Amino acid sequence: MIYLNGKLMPIEEACIPVLDRGFIFGDGVYEVIPVYSRRPFRLTSHLLRLQHSLDGIHLKNPHCDKEWHDLIAQVIAGNDGDDQYLYLHITRGAAKRDHAFPHNVTPTVLIMSTPLLPPARELLVKGASAITASDNRWIRCDIKAISLLPNVLLRQMAVDVGAVETILLRDGFLTEGAASNIFLVKDSVLLAPPKSHLMLPGITYDVVLELAAANNVLHEVREISEDELRTAEEIMLTSSTKEIMAITRLDNKIVGDGEPGPLFTRLYQCYQHYKATVMRGELSC
């Protein structure tokens, strides 16, 4: 069951006009929200990021927070599985094809659910491989825009060589992954690139930094050079659907000793404990 423009319906019945600006121009934004035990994870943070994206493309939010909460609850209840991930998709709506914003057009609002499956155990035990590429995307990566063709092409580069992610470099510095944020460990210190218009402000990125601070993990948020990335003791990626994953091979070269490192293991355990606490309702999510 999905929500589309005021109605809950089976996804097979959903239709969007061909003149929708999301289809014609990629004129819209999206948000992905993990759901554990039927509880949306960090919903307030996700809705704040959605608002940031809407502001970035000058599109009025079609719903207040309470309405989003109610709609999200309906979609969760309408689908099987305790663990899901929700995809929110908002476009400027359908109008005559013209680059300029149309007037008095109702936005298209879609919410759909997909089963949320944990990463394969082998990836958690052995780590995953990644490649690097030049970050050739636009410079407003902080907007979660639906026009994702550059990300798609960059991610496909990884798929084509059997890797899980493409790690992006711009002007000699790390930005993020094609669909993730990237952390690394250098001299036993957890490093994260700073939030800017060149990267998406990840919700899991925030959680990892909070857990690092709460568990006395030495960490710094600063620009990270390509050389630091390539000589890192550990590399890990974070995202709403993959949570935390160790990268043990980069561009077909071993990272560290080729196994998930001690800091990844510690942060992964902290994350799972935090998530379980939220799922039990002992912490606000």
Account of the protein in words:
This protein is of the alpha+beta class. It has 2 domains: 2-115, Aminotransferase class 4, branched-chain amino acid transferase, N-terminal domain (D-amino Acid Aminotransferase, Chain A, domain 1, 2-Layer Sandwich), CATH 3.30.470.10; 121-278, D-amino Acid Aminotransferase, Chain A, domain 2 (Alpha-Beta Barrel). The chain contains 8 helices and 15 strands. The strands form 2 sheets. Strands 7, 8, 9, 10, 11, 12, 13, 14 and 15 form a 9-stranded mixed beta sheet that branches. Strands 2-1-6-5-3-4 form a 6-stranded antiparallel beta sheet. The protein is globular and about 55 Å long. It starts with a strand and ends in a 6-residue tail after the last helix. The mean pLDDT is 96. Keywords: Pyridoxal phosphate. Pfam families: Aminotran_4. This is D-alanine transaminase. One of its GO terms (cellular component) is cytosol.
Quick recap of the structure?
By secondary structure, the chain is α+β, with helices and mostly antiparallel strands. 30% of the residues lie in helices and 28% in strands.
SSE blueprint:
Blueprint: E1 2-4, E2 7-9, H1 21-25, E3 28-36, E4 39-40, H2 43-56, H3 65-77, E5 84-91, E6 108-115, H4 121-126, E7 128-134, H5 149-160, E8 165-170, E9 173-177, E10 181-186, E11 189-192, H6 203-214, E12 219-221, H7 226-230, E13 234-239, E14 243-250, E15 253-254, H8 262-279
Parallel strand pairs: 7-8, 7-14, 11-12
Antiparallel strand pairs: 1-2, 1-6, 3-4, 3-5, 5-6, 8-9, 10-11, 10-13, 13-14, 14-15
Helix pairs in contact: 6-8
GO molecular function, one term: catalytic activity
Protein name: D-alanine transaminase
Pfam family, one: Aminotran_4
